[in-house]
Structures are given as C-alpha cells and as structure tokens.
Amino acid sequence: MSRQLVHKTAAGEVLLICSERRGADAFSVTAQWPRAHCFYDVVAGRHDPLLVAETARQCIPLLSHLGYGAPADHRQIWKNLTWSVEPEALLAASAPAEIRLDVQCQDVVRRGDRLAALSMSVILWRDGAILGSATTRFTNHSPSVIARLRGPYHTALSSALPATGLPVPLPAERVGRDRPRDVVLSPGKAPHTFGLRVDGRHPVLFDHATDHVPGMLLVEAARQATQAVAFPDAALITGMAIKYHRYVELDRPCLIEAEVLPAQVPTHVSTRVTAVQDEEAAFTALVTAQRAPALGPPAHSY
Q: Strands across the sheet with 129-141, in order?
C-alpha cells in the first residue's frame, strides 16, 4: 500500500495492505498489525487497542482517494470518531495479526464532482470473529481551502517547534508507558488536570510535519489521562466516543482535563477527557476501560 494513500511518510507506519470495492459505497480493506511496534506495542500479550483507531484513520484518506476520487493533495478533517474493541480479540500471536475491515460509507456529500464529506461505518474482523467497530465522519478539502481555513497557522509547522524546552512529562509508568519520550501529558495544577506535551520530533505522532496537533495525539492524550486516573491499576481501553470541535494549535498551551464518570461495573473505569485551549473545548472523548493490576512495561522496548 502506498504511504501517500494513507498520509504517512514512514513505510513502517502503514497498517493497510490492500482494498477492494464491494459495492457503490462498500469496501473491504485488509490491515496487518505488527508483532512489535515502537509506539503502539504489545503489552501483557495484547495488541494496543488504539490500533483500532489508527487503522480506521488510515481508511479515511485511502478511500477518499481511491474510492471517491479525492486528489492526492486533498486533506481530510475529522469531525468525530467512535470506536470499540473486544479485549480478548487483542491477544497477540506468533505472527502479525491480519485484520479485515468491512467499510460502509454513507451520507456522501459532493460539491460538483468533488468529495466534500462522508461518514464511514467499519467492522473489524480477526480470524472470523469481530475484533471491534468504528464510525467516523470527516470533510474533504483542497489545499486552497485548507489554507483559507487555517489562515496564519497554515505555515506554522510542527517541524519548526523548538527542540528543547518541552514540559516535564508525567512519570511514564503512571500513564502506561515505559519511556518519557512517549508521554504526552505534563503535571497540571489541579487533580486530574494535565498539560498537553507536544513533541514535534516524535517519529510516530509526528510522522510528517503538520500545522496543528494531530488527531491521534489527542486520542493518545485521552488514553494516558484515563490511565493516570486509574493508576496504580492498569487501564485497558475498550472504546472511545470522540468529537473534534476545533484545531488544537501548536504554539499555545492546551489543558487536558479528565472527569471520572460512574462506571457500570467496578472492574471498569469511565472518563470524560477534554482538551481545552484558549478556554474553549477543542476535543472531547468519552473513554471506557477495564481495570487490571499493574502490567509492567511493554513486551518490546526500543
């Protein structure tokens, strides 16, 4: 699969292998999850559940370009993403996991002959059993429209962020990580409140230069905030319901606020995570997770 079709620079970050149209708005996509990954790694014998979100994300540019004719330089803007996963289906094996995605697109909007927006519903299968599901809506825009939408921020690329002066990270073990480099939260001034830590040099979260905080970095912040709330227990994320309200800019502080919600069962934790910049909510996520004893570091470290 071409890196450009999924908007990645590093070949190792491409999860999708092939795709096939099954109907006017129906597609079958095959993905492969590696046995080890430098960021989305196997922990306690399970694949990282956030691979569900990243796999669904890669379907957005892929099908925009191949399925609906969006030019290669068009970009997609996330509106929402809801995803869930069956924890037992995440168990890692001795070979990479092959995942089949049944993708149904709907509510397709065109302006003239150009794709303007659509929604996707995705069912993920592994070895004949349902692994998880995802739904998302996004809009599609040309470079000129993106430049108008972003205004002066269009040229404020992450590659120009200072190489020093990052906020001190939370302890890696508190957010389920084994390296400070992968921690995206810094200590806050109130309980369950953190600073967003944006490292433009991170090889996965910033696979390529961008003029805003990437959507998957915010997903990771929601995961880490939930883990911080559950600490010292581990929190295995089982789903998120996410809304992207506005861009999070690179050059201004952003707070991550985690509100603990009543859990349906004692073995679970539920949080509402909000990214606040300039006193406005830019991102919200309702996160569900299973509590477990502390699991220790990932199975593979690099």
A: 16-23, 26-33, 97-111, 114-126, 129-141, 75-85, 234-244, 280-292, 268-277, 255-261, 193-196, 185-187
**pTM, two decimal places:** 0.95
Which tokens hold the place of 243? Answer: 């809304």
DSSP state of 43: B
Indicate the Cα dihedral angle 93, 135, 57, 116, nearest 10°. Answer: 160
pLDDT at 23: 95
- Count CA atoms closer than 13 A to 209's CA, side-chain side: 9
Tokens at 138, concatenated: 């996004």
pLDDT of 281:
98
Taking every pair of Cα atoms in the chain, the longest distance, rounded to a whole number of angstroms, is 55
Reported as half-sphere exposure (CB side, CA atoms, 13 A), residue 247 has a value of 18
CA distances from 101 to 17, 23, 55, 121 (A): 11, 14, 9, 10
- Residue pair 63/47 in contact by the 8 Å Cβ criterion: no
Structure tokens at 229: 């709330």
Summarize pLDDT for 289-299 with one digit per residue, the tens: 998 876 555 44
The set of residues, in sequence order, having a beta carbon less than 8 Å from that of 178 and lying 6+ positions away, is 172, 297, 298, 301
Among residues 133, 11, 118, 1, which one has the least CA distance to residue 64? Answer: 118
What does the pLDDT read at residue 300? 43
